[in-house]
Write a structure and sequence with these properties.
This protein has 176 residues and is mainly alpha-helical. Helix content is 77%, strand content 0%. It contains six helices and no strands. Helix 2 packs parallel to helix 5. The protein binds fe (ii) ion. Fe (ii) ion (FE2) binds next to helix 1 and helix 2.
Length: 176
């Protein structure tokens, strides 16, 4: 069993991960509207990964005898004006998610909840990667410049190569 407080934090995290998927689909829609199909594809894959993150928390809550209580999702922004604006929003959002993951890790330690402490470690590492990805894309956009059509098309082609992979904890769960 997990504590009531931990159950609440994990349920809030399910909502945050689904919201991330929703936000990234909104980013995809912006890029699709500008015919930047590589960026659109990259954010579709990102949205799929965020949905998977939500499902990993969902599965974990069930596994430890908690009760999943799905929350409402707010409408994400949709009125964007530049690539840099979107990637900046992505980075800010991922930093918020990291803080939320750290909060779960802090509570797990405080409550001597070793199971959750072990479970959350994968997400601590994942967040480091998410922030690094966003930072890298942002620096490339700034380097190329928003108005350099050739540079943006090259970046778009690079973004198109991203391949969706089922996150390890979910793949492990599906095999069980
Ligand atoms: Fe996530």
């Amino acid at each position: 069993m997990i504590s009531e407080r931990m159950e609440k934090l994990l349920n809030e995290q399910v909502q945050k991960e689904f919201y991330s998927a929703y936000l990234y689909l909104s980013f995809e829609a912006y890029f699709a509207g500008r015919n930047l199909d590589g960026f659109a594809h990259w954010f579709r894959v990102q949205a799929m990964e965020e949905r998977d993150h939500a499902l990993i928390f969902f599965n974990y809550i069930n596994q430890v005898g908690g009760r999943v209580k799905l929350q409402a999702l707010a409408a994400p922004d949709w009125d964007f004006h530049s690539i840099e604006e979107i990637i900046t929003k992505q980075l800010e959002h991922e930093r918020l998610v990291t803080a939320s993951i750290y909060n779960i890790a802090d509570h797990a330690i405080e409550e001597r909840d070793h199971k959750t402490n072990s479970f959350i470690k994968w997400f601590v590492d994942e967040q480091a990667e998410e922030e690094a990805n966003a930072e890298q894309i942002l620096s490339k956009i700034r380097l190329v410049g928003e108005n350099d059509g050739r540079g943006i098309l090259m970046l778009d082609a690079e973004m198109a190569t991203r391949v969706y992979v089922v996150p390890a904890p979910l793949a492990a769960n599906n095999q069980a």
